Amino acid sequence: MADLPPFQTLIDEHATAVMAVLRGAVGRDGAEDAFQETFLAALRAYPQLRDASNLRGWLVTIAHRKAIDHHRATGRAPLPVAAVREEAVSDPDLADREVWAGVAALPPKQRAAVTLRFASDLPHEEIAAALGCSRDAARRSLHEGLKRLRKEMS
After folding, report:
1. pLDDT at 13 (0 to 100)
2. DSSP-derived secondary structure for 34-47
3. pTM exceeds cut of 0.70
């Protein structure tokens, strides 16, 4: 075990640096929460820490990972919009049938990518494996398919 200073001393010495990293990584709004998460994770791991030679680097690494977690969480959250455009659809099943008819008209790789993503809820890696192509090629097929659908359905 390393000769560790009291945890409060660690916080006092490195809180400013950690907060600066988090403000840069997630912005002012998310920095406070990420800061708390960083030091909670550090507190849990602190008793098992074996090397105390670079505590600042250790904390900044934890902060960086919490920033990634923050971006993943907010990337999945819905974004508020000023107004929602409402379109009257008398038969929701009709709208679904029209969308899937458009999907059926796509070129084979685009059709497969869109179907695997939205009907099977597969991530890009699994779509790539199913199509026998790279992750980037699968993403591109999905992107092109969605672009074509938007164009044809608008």
Report:
1. 94
2. HHHHHHHHHHHHGG
3. no
